[in-house]
Design goal:
By secondary structure, the chain is α/β, with parallel strands linked by helices. Helices cover 30% and strands 23% of the residues. The chain has a five-stranded mixed β-sheet with strand order 1-2-3-4-5, sandwiched between helices. Strand 3, helix 1 and strand 4 form a beta-alpha-beta unit. The radius of gyration is 14 Å and the shape is globular. The two termini are 24 Å apart. It binds guanosine-5'-triphosphate and magnesium ion. Magnesium ion binds next to loops. InterPro entries: ARL2/3, P-loop_NTPase, Small_GTPase_ARF/SAR. GO terms for molecular function: GTP binding; GTPase activity. It holds the Pfam family Arf. Belongs to the small GTPase superfamily. Arf family.
Length: 129
């Protein structure tokens, strides 16, 4: 199973720091992977702005979205349900999306996130005319 990912940018256009990072799947921009630092709850408003800006981009209009709530092991972290609420995910109606809780540090949930990404890609392909 090969899933080529490239980092496109982070919150406010900065690759380092910030509450979120954006990965694109494949050279064809097949999916958006939006990685959130759940341990920066006070900065999630910025992450939300970035996410919704990306969702408006014409060439990404149909791309499925996987949101990854990282650092779930950290004491400062917001639970995944709250991250989902903060990002307004339930308002997304024009594409398939999922949110998965992970801890990259403890490699907890990483397999599940990759499987979910594959599932989204498969479903998206199957829904195309
Ligand atoms: N507790 C915890 N720490 C993590 C996790 N993933 C990454 N980190 C640590 O968080 C620190 C910063 O890493 P990132 O957030 O990926 O990097 P960044 O966004 O460029 O830098 P920051 O401004 O520090 O957030 C590093 O020390 C990582 O090891 C995780 O799942 N849990
Ligand atoms: Mg970070």
């Amino acid at each position: 199973m090969g899933v080529p990912l490239s980092c496109r940018g982070g919150s406010g256009g900065h690759l380092l720091g910030g509450p979120s990072k954006v990965l694109m799947v494949g050279p064809t921009k097949a999916a958006i992977v939006f990685v959130i630092d759940s341990a920066k709850p006070l900065q999630l408003k910025l992450a939300k702005l970035d996410l919704w800006e990306i969702l408006q981009e014409n060439e990404l209009k149909l791309c499925p979205l996987l949101v990854i709530a990282n650092k779930q092991d950290s004491k400062e972290s917001l639970p995944v349900e709250n991250v989902s609420d903060e990002m307004g995910l339930s308002n997304i109606q024009d594409r398939m999306w999922s949110i998965i809780a992970i801890s990259a540090l403890e490699t907890e949930g990483v397999d599940k996130a990759l499987r979910e990404l594959c599932r989204l890609l498969d479903e998206h392909r199957a829904s195309m005319p």
